[in-house]
Amino acid sequence: MGPGRRAVLFLAVAIVVQFFVTVRAYRRWSALPWLAVPGLPAAAYFLYLYSRTGDVMAWKHAQERGWYRDLTAPWHTWTTTWTAAFDHVQTTGYAWMFQAELVAVVVGLVLLTFLVRQRRWAEATYLGLSLLALGTSYWFLSMPRATLLWWPLWVGLGVWTLRHPWVRTTYLCVVAPLSTIVALTFFTGRWAG
């Protein structure tokens, strides 16, 4: 199950958390059954997997075989990725990829800490589940791609750029050349190493 599909499940859990955080203030328990709606696509997906493969967890088993996505302690995942990024055991392309994975994890942890300190429980739940799911495999993989789905990051960045115009300028000066490099890498067929 890729980051996009997982993000839907994490968002559903975050919606449940948000419901229970706010239900005390508004006393709208009659809305509780609507919390089942976000789970319907996930249930349909698992039913589809079972009907096609006979295995509800076929996506997990495929990732274990193809990408070494076995359950691993986060500190082992960090160590394995760090070794791949900096110990000259990978080609330059892969080393850069693993370095980007580490940067994305650090950004995620900083954002998670901020959200918890601000008591933004639903957002923290969403981000925490994303970090946990991608941070407990053999090495970090897909973390930079997952950051595209971290809506608390992008909403926060948008608010920050409105309050501090220099942030917008700095962001554009960093992202424009980086996006060009990533696009050139992708369009020349070297994206996967």
Automatic annotation (TrEMBL):
Q: Name one GO biological process term.
A: proteolysis
| Domain Caspase family p10 per the UniProt entry, residue ranges | 36-68
Give the residue spans that cross the bilayer: 6-25, 32-50, 96-116, 123-141, 170-192
> MF terms per GO, please?
cysteine-type endopeptidase activity
PROSITE patterns xrefs: CASPASE_P10
What are the protein's UniProt keywords? Membrane, Transmembrane, Transmembrane helix
Q: What is this protein called?
A: Caspase family p10 domain-containing protein
